[in-house]
Amino acid sequence: MKLALFDLDHTLLPIDSDYSWGQFTTRIGWTDPVEFTRRNDEFFADYQAGTLDVHDYVRFATEALRRHSPDQAAAAHERFMAEVIGPNLQPQALELVQRHRDAGDQVLIITATNDFVTRPIAQAFGVTELIAIELERGLDGWYSGEIRGTPSFREGKVARLQQWLAARGLGWDDCDMTFYSDSTNDLPLLERAHNPVATNPGAALREIAQQRGWRILDLFPESA
Known about the structure:
This protein is of the alpha/beta class. It is built from 10 helices and 7 strands. The chain has helices at 17-27, 33-49, 54-61, 63-66, 70-85, 91-102, 115-124, 155-166, 187-190, 203-212, and strands at residues 2-6, 106-114, 129-137, 143-148, 176-181, 195-199, 215-217. It is globular and about 45 Å long.
């Protein structure tokens, strides 16, 4: 199997969808703008530094969502897709995904952002296979704020991909794997991929890619 794996935020999108969703919920009045922005910025800085506690972050990031009904959440996300994600679906990213699809590759998005935020985004890219942080549901059927299973973050992306392969009767050696990512948080999976591609990389990943001879792809050169 030829497998094309894509990180999402700052890889296929020039923005961070999780962070942008948080900003959006503040804009529509779901959160206190000062306090939410302060905490959101702190978590984002931790993510960039590689020190994020993903469980604490998911509890925080889903707090406003959990105070609203599923219908309200769906309506808000539809508006988020139209107002925030749609304008950031860049032709060059859509074309990259389509090239792999046209070549017959199995395309998969693997992200540390939760599945509520990202599944409609993956669908907008025409991608049906998504590995994302899965949100646990409580007895009432709505999100509890906890993560179900292994979070697809750092080493967790390797574990979740291994589970995905095993469910299809496949192992690492059965795939020719290309992985596109912007972040050093994804080094565990970049190092396992046959064809790692540092995509819109930050300075740290760009340096590592140059040292190791990995391909570097600046999809969004205006923001590089």
